[in-house]
Specification:
By secondary structure, the protein is of the alpha/beta class. It has two domains: 208 residues, Class I glutamine amidotransferase (GATase) domain (Rossmann fold), CATH 3.40.50.880; 108 residues, Homeodomain-like (Arc Repressor Mutant, subunit A, Orthogonal Bundle), CATH 1.10.10.60. It contains 15 helices and eleven strands. The strands form three sheets. The protein has a seven-stranded mixed β-sheet with strand order 5-2-1-6-7-11-10, sandwiched between helices. The longest helix has 21 residues.
Length: 330
């Protein structure tokens, strides 16, 4: 019998992101016995903590580990549950997990799967250096700053790199767990779990869920002023030289500092601001696609649609149909 460890982090754990994967995995475990006509379940699944003491979430809900890391010599898959709140503090509180994860990978070749901001614990091991991963879009900037050697793929809900799996955020963990179920139990079992739990199957991108608020978690005052200038004038035709001039920087210095502070080029930043404005128009108004295009300062229909899909994962029409209430319920 193989073994799966679902971690129960110390500190501010999110209980439902532990329970949901645990329940889905057990559902898959039970169904697989029907498929194989076997009385033995293929996996032993444990909730693994640093101690056996219950972990309490928001003072209301608690979850009790079934095993501690000290009781498990070998596990085949570690599912690294999310931490929340102060992420630096969360990593510090769970360094025993970090060391155990690293040891299991090196000693036993254990596969690793991080859910949402559990990616911070995974990255802290150093095992992600030079590899690709996903995490919740609200933590992208902080992750890039803390782990610059990791190739973060912001749009991905699911990422796999040499036996190390990671996912986007929040309840996309359900889609990610189905992905892991397919990997470990087979596609038939994964589809069955998808139908019973009514979870979308094969969803790959979190782009449509990202709300772009601008990457302002930095200390470069000139770049911050440039960001504000872009956000206040996104409908105009903006150039790098023009924006650099407004903050008294040379174009070369401005480009370097802007990319370092925001992880975007000025052009990418302008495009993302425009697309976010377009999304709000498509969600909340009865404007046509062309009217929205002109509103955000685009005149080229093809360029607008291409840029919109790049940052939202959907075409403008698909986005409007999905998120505009009047159209969605028409």
């Amino acid at each position: 019998m193989k073994h799966i460890s679902v971690l129960v982090p110390s500190g501010n754990s999110i209980v439902d992101t532990i329970i949901a994967p645990y329940n889905l995995l057990n559902m898959a475990n039970s169904y697989s016995t029907q498929v194989t006509k076997s009385q033995d379940k293929p996996f032993k699944i444990d909730l693994v903590g640093l101690t056996l003491e219950p972990v309490v979430y928001q003072g209301l809900f608690s979850i009790r580990p079934t095993k501690t890391i000290h009781e498990i010599d070998k596990t085949d898959l570690i599912i690294i549950s999310p931490i929340s709140g102060d992420l630096a503090l969360g990593v510090k509180q769970n360094m025993e997990f970090v060391n155990w994860i690293k040891a299991q990978r090196i000693k036993n070749g254990t596969e690793l799967a991080s859910l949402c901001k559990g990616t911070f614990l995974l990255a802290e091991t150093g095992l992600l250096n030079g590899k690709s991963c996903a995490t919740h879009w609200t933590a992208h900037d902080q992750f890039k700053q803390r782990y610059p050697k990791v190739n973060l793929l912001p749009e991905k809900i699911i990422c796999e790199d040499n036996g190390i799996y990671s996912s986007g955020g929040a309840y996309s963990i359900l889609n990610f767990t189905l992905y892991l179920i397919e990997r470990y139990f087979g596609r038939e079992t994964a589809i069955w779990c998808s139908k019973i739990a009514e979870i979308d199957f094969d969803r790959k991108s979190q782009s449509e869920f990202i709300i772009f608020n601008g990457q302002k978690d930095h200390t470069d005052i000139a770049v911050r002023k440039a960001q504000e200038y872009i956000e206040n004038n996104f409908q105009d035709k903006l150039s790098v030289e023009q924006i650099a001039d407004t903050v008294n920087l040379s174009s070369r210095s401005f480009l370097r500092r802007f990319k370092k502070a925001t992880f975007n080029t000025p052009l990418e930043y302008i495009q993302r601001v425009k697309v976010e404005a377009a999304k709000k128009q498509l969600e909340n108004t009865a404007k046509s696609i062309l009217e929205v295009m002109y509103f955000i300062g685009y005149n080229d229909d093809k360029a607008f649609r291409t840029t919109f899909r790049k940052y939202s994962g959907l075409s403008p029409k698909e986005y409007q149909k999905k998120y505009n209430r009047e159209i969605a319920f028409a």
